[in-house]
Amino acid sequence: xxxxxxxxxxxxxxxxxxxxxxxxxxxxxxxxxxxxxxxxxxxxxxxxxxxxxxxxxxxxxxxxxxxxxxxxxxxxxxxxxxxxxxxxxxxxxxxxxxxxxxxxxxxxx
Length: 109
Hints:
Elements: E1 18-23, E2 29-31, H1 39-58, H2 65-94, H3 96-108
Antiparallel strand pairs: 1-2
């Protein structure tokens, strides 16, 4: 059986530079090549905090190793699942930019 060959004109949606249906803050089509650049720095900060959190909880804060591990697992789970709540609120009620502004204000306060 011969493999299917895609025509040259039908490119995979993941290879296109623009994101279908998404716009940037200026109302122009969102481009994959210029958006999302902070993802690498955010991941590095997350894993840096996660790696040192048990040491901080057991050292200066004096928690037991078991309690520190439990707290780190809880923190990891919450930080993994909280974006789902933010996405639900943004998609259902507030909109993308309003949700980002409100979440940023809560974070600052």
